[in-house]
Amino acid sequence: MSTNYVKAVLFDLDGTLIDTAADFTRIIGRMSEKNGWQTPSSDAIREQVSAGAGAMVSLMLKHNNQPLTDDQVQQYRQQFLDEYAADICVDSRVFPELDALLEFYEKNDIPWGIVTNKPRYLATKLLECLNLTERCSVLVCPDDVSNTKPDPEPMYLALEKLELPRGVANSVIYVGDHIRDIQAGAAAGMTNILASYGYIPPEDQDTIDSWGADYIAETPKALVKLLRSKEFDYL
Question: Which residues contact 41 (CB under 8 A, 6 or more apart)?
Fold first, then answer.
């Protein structure tokens, strides 16, 4: 950061602020059971969360040697989304220690928000279930923009909704667990933190140092320690 004063903190959703993997695993397990299939491991499903519903469905079909035609994937993807929307927050939780961090921001009038590639109807429902709706200062979803991350458009929209000019983007922190998060934040001129505790496949773990993040947090506790450190000052 060219200035250490933080005007806002933005988070990616799945795998960064909220641990949603258990609910995805449960839905994939239910679908597999209905079809008499074997369920992929929870670790394998977790690694596909950031790639979206289609990736998790494709994993399930590949694991059971099922056809991967576009129609087949789309059919099961829609079933997956319908079941997830109906039962979205059984095991999902804010990552340990991050809720206390959010409380710190709220007590000090530092706006925090979410910029996610999760569809708005799902993101809104999840935040409602976790009582985060009123606490979140801004929520930007793919529905709100023409170009999603890694394009900076969602980041610029978040600034606009927070009534912050683009010129102070370097005083805004963005935390994410995917290379597209780091690319989008960097393109918008924000300070980026990679949450390497998130949903990163093993084959990508060896490359994260090249993603260009300003900081890397290996655990939620490390993220909190970093954000509460002297590295950053809060107005």
Answer: none
